[in-house]
Amino acid sequence: ISDADFNFVSDLLLKRIGFRLEKDKGYLVESRFSKLAEKAGLKGAHEFIAQLRANCPESLIAEAVEAMTTNETYFFRDNVPFQTLRDKALAAILPRRAASKSLNIWSAACSTGQEPYSIAITLKEGLPQLADWSMQIFATDVNNEVLAKAREGAYNHSEISRGIGPELLQRYFTKTGQEWKIHKDMARNIRFQQLNLCQAWPAFPKMDVIFLRNVLIYMSDEAKKSILARVHGLLRPDGFLFLGAAESTFNLADYFVRTDWERSGCFRPRGPA
Q: Is the pTM of this model over 0.90?
């Protein structure tokens, strides 16, 4: 694609979802938009972008944005954050919620659902005392296509084998044809919904834990600062924020401090909890 086309797409992604598209990613735009062009009966990525430029219908913009999002995920990704959630973060939080017996967790870039289902399994496996608690896991993503798969909760052998061992597979999934489907009771407390982190957020309750893993790394500094400020306003003072292993709040949000829980990517609001 031409430099002009690349710059148009880059600006569109920055304005819509805060994503910073590196200059060497032209091949990615061409590859993903070529598929959209074929589906729309167009000749190639250039023609698809020309249609975007011409009238920018909202449905076409949504397709373009969703095509450029990264949806890499798997069950219990990196393991340590889920162990830390169970053994340390919730160990600190639960005594303070004993009176209300309520817990709110947000998976803020849930992709095809492996992260929120991993959280639900972690709670079920490691914290049986929560059986009579009111728990909600909010699971959001900008991409409606991956959300549809997340709601379905069905995964092929390759997807299931990344993180789910035989015991968990037996306890929480049922084989349906060539896929494994998560049991309905594990999805009962999960609320999936579409959300663009750079636009208006719904009226969420205050959160005890927020997973915002492996999404800020793709965003501009301005978008990161804005999102982290809003996350801070939503997170309870004694709550915890989990970022990806390569992500940090350094020079972006001085109101978060990294915990000393090694390799967890876990932060808490600065100041007394």
A: yes
